[in-house]
Amino acid sequence: MTLPSPSGSRACLIGTAGYVHLDPLPAVRNNVQALADHLAASDGWQLPRENILPVVDPGQVAHLVEPVRRAAAEATDTLLVYYSGHGHLDDQMQFSLSLTGSRHNEPWTCVPFTWIKALLADTRATRRVVILDSCFSGKAHGLMAGAADAVRLQAATAGAVVLSSASEDGPALAPPGERYTAFTGELLDLLTSGISGGPKVITVDLAHAYVKSALAARGRPLPERTGTDTSGALGLARNPLHRPEASVQARLPRGARLVALAERLNLSMEPETLARPSVGAPDTSRSRYEMLDKKVGMGGMGTVSLAWDHFLRRTVACKTPHDGLHLETAFWAEVRAVAALNHPNIAAIYDVAEQGGKRFFVMEYVPGQPLSELTGHREVEPDDAAEIMCETLAALEHAHRAGVIHCDVKPANIMLTPEGSIKILDFGISFLVNETSAHPLWEEGKIIGTPAFLAPEMITGSVPSVAADIYAAGVSFFLFLTGEHPFPRTNLHKLFIATTEEPVRVPSSVRADVPAAYDKIVERAMAKDPAGRFPTAADMRAAIAAVLYGTPP
């Protein structure tokens, strides 16, 4: 979380405000001037003015390229390249930066972004920041891959990061009458106004999350971010509202941490199998669901595979029971459990079908990454873990109110989507509190579930309850915070003894930067006596939110 060295850093700020074929953009000149002032200020990078190269209304290729070349040649610590103006796509969908003399449908009058990329790849600077405030600027994320890889090889602790104000096929916004463009205006407001109770330095990830949230609240185009896995810690500004004596954490908007985490992990939105025709009426003579050769999960009850719904033309997930476990009551217990729920953090069920002699149920396809792959990941900060649990507990709260106990809450059954949302999966062994017919799995005295997440009373054969899910949520929170299990045992017998008899370790004993408040939440959630735990998922969620967001418990 360091700021660039003033002597070893350079900033090239380019703005094209006047055009031949388009309306002028007076806000662009204001963008460049304000950013230059900020970078020179005490709260910014404290760059000497000679290390800041402002370029307004470049009329020739050399007017734009040469300042970038100079900055790239001189920088040894951090290189910042900023562009604001109209972006251009040619008929090959290649992204270019406009000059004042650029003409519509004449790409040779613009500057291809690949030229800028080449200069960035050659610089000695160990850290590179590219900020593009233009239409179609999302195109640059793919184009920067080579340069980002080059930086990763040069400096493992630094990185290259690209922030863009728009998607690769969408517009940016310069609202009439406003002093700055939409994206740069929000960025400048954050960097100059600061974050109350926030950290000493405003990093790339913190700034991106705040700006994205602010733009979303105003219904404006959303920015995008890519970069190496360490680039989020690059400092953009000193936080003028930082108070060393303050103990509160930075209050990010709800959901912002998960959005930033998903973007840092570069999660894929859709599988390649989604390419299908989208016109004409469906062929009702064929099977509705085309099973695809891609398994996305396997549990104790069945296998989950991707399928294509020919009627509604969408990718879905189909769960088929394992051979020998296709018991009518077990199958319908899971179907009814999920069908009773309607919550944004729970994967929805669409249909029950039978094809080729096999019965299966059709669910929402959830792209992303199961959180079992993230436990202990260096990208997951304690507050990221807390936000994961807030969303997970919201889903459990909804399920419990509907009389559904999940019974297998664990990171492997929690998915982080590319959009930064959480989805709970796999209700295969869930317990329906009000179900009159007994679930075939839940026989008296039988132990069901994943051993490492079983509550002490579940080990002795008790009937599942809300308290059991709360305990499993506590174990999951411990894992997200530390990367370790609270009772690391290789022997099942020893694990069960530890679960029922040993005191719980606090997460901060494993990871020193875990707040003490999170220690207390984990301790209460994992109390040996169910009566000592949080009474409801809502209560546990409120306790976490009080620390994370500053809301009252």
From TrEMBL:
Keywords, comma-separated and alphabetical: ATP-binding, Kinase, Nucleotide-binding, Serine/threonine-protein kinase, Transferase
Gene3D superfamilies xref list: 3.40.50.1460, Phosphorylase Kinase, domain 1, Transferase(Phosphotransferase) domain 1
Molecular function, one GO term: ATP binding
InterPro entries, sorted: Caspase-like_dom_sf (IPR029030), Kinase-like_dom_sf (IPR011009), Pept_C14_caspase (IPR011600), Prot_kinase_dom (IPR000719), Protein_kinase_ATP_BS (IPR017441), Ser/Thr_kinase_AS (IPR008271)
Transmembrane segments: none
Pfam family, one: Pkinase
CDD domains (UniProt xref): STKc_PknB_like
Binding residue positions for ATP: 319
One GO term (biological process): proteolysis
Domain Protein kinase: 290-548
NCBIfam families referenced in this protein's UniProt entry, alphabetically: caspase_w_EACC1
Protein name listed in UniProt: Serine/threonine protein kinase
Taxon lineage: Bacteria, Bacillati, Actinomycetota, Actinomycetes, Micromonosporales
